[in-house]
């Protein structure tokens, strides 16, 4: 059976030796199905990258790999379906889902006690008792 168009493009890119980012993207796209399956199986993105890097299937950095995962696998589809949160590295270097920013949350999730201003507030008109 004939190879898929994606596989043929990946082979062509590998033969031509184009710029690094094009070659890296082609390598990732060739492995996208396997990477998505591993993520769905619950494997951390860092472990997936380490395995592919050790097998010499990817030659680019973990940060670049994480960017491809976020953009090409975890980004929301155009048809409006929801997708998992993008991946960010935590303190230990392991990948963890990123929480949605407050502006992306629904109003029901906003907590008024967290939205209230705390700490110092600047008042540009001075009080007479505060002046020397």
Automatic annotation (TrEMBL):
Name of a matching Pfam family: DUF5338
Region of interest called Disordered, as start-end residue ranges on this chain: 79-132
Protein name according to UniProt: Conjugal transfer protein TraK
Biological source species: Candidatus Accumulibacter contiguus
Lineage: Bacteria, Pseudomonadati, Pseudomonadota, Betaproteobacteria, Candidatus Accumulibacter
């Amino acid at each position: 059976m004939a190879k898929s168009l994606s596989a043929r493009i990946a082979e062509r890119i590998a033969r031509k030796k184009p710029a690094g980012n094009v070659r890296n993207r082609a390598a990732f796209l060739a492995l996208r199905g396997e990477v998505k399956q591993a993520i769905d199986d619950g494997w951390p993105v860092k472990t997936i990258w380490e395995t592919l890097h050790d097998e010499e299937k990817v030659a680019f950095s973990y940060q670049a790999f994480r960017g491809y995962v976020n953009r090409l696998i975890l980004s929301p589809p155009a048809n409006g379906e929801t997708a998992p949160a993008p991946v960010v590295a935590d303190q230990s270097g392991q990948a963890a889902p990123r929480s949605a920013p407050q502006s992306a949350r629904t109003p029901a999730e906003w907590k008024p006690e967290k939205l209230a201003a705390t700490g110092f507030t600047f008042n540009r008109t001075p009080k007479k008792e505060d002046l020397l």
